[in-house]
Amino acid sequence: MHKAPFELAKIKSKDISKEIYVLFLVVTTDCMFNCKYCFVKKNPSYMDWHTAKRGVELLLKTKGKKKLLKIYGGEPLLNFPLIKKIVPHAEKLALKYGKELTVTICSNMVLFNAENLKFIKKHEVSLALSSDGKPESHNLNRRFKTGKESAGIIESKLELLLEKVSKEKLAINLTVPNELVSELFENFKYLTALGANTFNVEPIMSDAWKKQEIVVFRRQFQKILDWVIASAEKGNFIFITQINRELRYGEITEMMQGSCILKRNLILSTIGELHLNVFAAYSEEDRAEKCVGNVNTGIFSKHFGCKNKQAEVCERCLAEYAKNLKKINAPSGTRNELTLQAVRELKRRAKSQLIYRKYLSQAKKQICF
Hints:
Number of helices: 15
Helix content: 40-55%
CATH architecture: Alpha-Beta Barrel
Number of strands: 12
CATH superfamily: Aldolase class I
Largest sheet: 12 strands, mixed
Radius of gyration: 20 Å
Strand order of the largest sheet: 1-12-11-10-9-2-3-4-5-6-7-8
């Protein structure tokens, strides 16, 4: 048996003591797009029902009241028959074990139609929809495998989704490539003009970011936050999911205090392997070495049985796992720093202004991603 960083085979499922909040369920690695910055190898691998079932059970049987199941790809709607089985099963288990479950499908929007939207609405599934913003920005990286531009069809699908799905259940995953960082605020404003009101601002996970680009990201993201805060005073509520999750779960604060990565970043591959890092999960070189469990064999690393609560121990553990993995310098830390500042400002204003109290109350409901 191959030995992973945390001694695979030491912990059985019945001995898992860790809280798991998020599970990325990679139902397929296939996709009709060939985005320049995407780290997913687009080989047509599809998750089967038994693997999905065991993954959902791992999430919902373990500790923690709140659970977030992110149905991921490739393009997950390519495996929609599996999604139709996963979601009702997850709902039944959540009810059985008394869990508060949110299910999100992370999609490029191309395959939405009347059939899957009917199912999505019935089961109150949230949607995280990928876009880079204005057509010229979006088409720079996000094209079909044929080379065809995708902005036109994406905007038509977004119009459909905004008409058919509650805005509380819909967020734009606004991807920020480093070469387009100076366009971030304009791309954000463009999408708000189309009707979207909730955004997950996501710098691409890459080692390509230069120091000056990170400086520009700080300015651009701060402009977004300032605009969001000012708009709220006028009753125009625009939400940033980083703010929403901090308000509801204290997510960034907990992470900075040394929260276990397993709680918030567990990825289940199409073949049942568990990883703590997306690059490891999708990598041909690092996948086997960095595997920390397999739901099909029922074998897990000692990481799942860890009872440590000391931040410095968690940091050493994460450093050990990340050793030799692809290094990234995307400005996620800058985003988190500015998010915390925005949360403090919103709370300060809410003490004296009813409109901000209403904003904070609604923000906690719009998680999506």
